[in-house]
Amino acid sequence: MELIYLLQSVASPALDTVMLWITQLGSEQVYIVLLIVAFLVIDAEKGRYLALIFLVGFYLNQVLKGLFATQRPYLIDETVSRSQAAIDSGPGSGFPSGHAQSSVTFWATAAYFVRRRWFSVLAVVVVLAISLSRLYLGVHLPIDVVGGLLVGVLVVVVGIALERRRLLLPLAAKLVLGLLLPLLLQLLFPLDESGILLGGLAAFVVGPELIKHDTSGPLAGRLVLGLIGIALAFGVLALSSALLPEEVKRNALGSFLRYFLLALSGTALAPWLGRVSGLTRGRTTRSSVVASAGRS
């Protein structure tokens, strides 16, 4: 708690606002945008692996929170709570910090794929800023943040090692396992945010197998498609929020399907729209090249 007291010794309403903005960089909505952009605009294959590593890591965080079930600092000393908005950003158990773990998982994995010094520096700054904001806002103890960072690094190391091996499975096996395993986990061991994470995980396994997305085309088309993907995802989120009863949204199956469809709109529907509209191009197979040469 001493570190929290020290950080809050320079607290002010303006700094509270800044820290709340920084902590929102680790929110669900921001990661939805980042993962869609990475997949649709930058690199479909690397964006897919980034999403898979990130979502598996975040699910592990939820499991660990349930196992440790530690208190947050504002429950130990209510004076460290900076605002209700800060409390709302940190419900549930404290250890390990989800914001710290997810930020290092996302940004370290992205830095591995990008391999540019400026991006690596940016990644470190973002991770440290988010982690510091959690302490300042009084929603995490230092051990929560350190634990989250360490678990996040472990997830990245294991995830990258598995990505390099690239286990090859038949398409049918990928589709079945990619959908059924996350669904079974959700039905058998539902957690607070497991519907979001496992539904998204299933969509990033299944969607790219249904529609192969090509990010080698013109940047302008990919940028437009990225905006379409973001609009589709948040459209599904808004419509499902408005139309579905609360008991369905909180139900294990309903939550899974809701976020599966949300993520599928970005991993399958948006790539299909990009292909039929000409914003992107479908992958050219060897057989199609041979057939084209024969016709000419």
List descriptors.
single chain, 296 residues, mainly alpha, 2 domains, 15 helices, disordered C terminus
Walk me through the structure.
77% of the residues lie in helices and 0% in strands. It is mainly alpha-helical and 296 residues long. The protein has helices at 2-8, 13-23, 28-42, 44-68, 73-76, 84-88, 98-114, 117-136, 142-165, 171-188, 194-210, 219-243, 246-250, 252-277, 286-295. The radius of gyration is 21 Å and the shape is globular.
The total count of strands amounts to 0
**Main beta sheet: strand number and arrangement?**
none
Structural class: mainly alpha
Shape: globular
- The helix/strand series, from N terminus to C terminus, equals HHHHHHHHHHHHHHH
Low-confidence stretches: 284-296
Helix content: over 70%
Overall number of domains:
2
- Supply the number of helical segments: 15
Radius of gyration: 21 Å
How far apart, in Å, are the first and last alpha carbons?
74 Å
In what range is the share of β-strand residues?
under 5%
Integer average pLDDT: 90
Question: How do the strands and helices of this protein lay out in sequence?
Answer:
Blueprint: H1 2-8, H2 13-23, H3 28-42, H4 44-68, H5 73-76, H6 84-88, H7 98-114, H8 117-136, H9 142-165, H10 171-188, H11 194-210, H12 219-243, H13 246-250, H14 252-277, H15 286-295
Helix pairs in contact: 2-8, 3-4, 3-12, 3-14, 4-7, 4-9, 4-11, 7-8, 7-9, 10-11, 11-14, 12-14
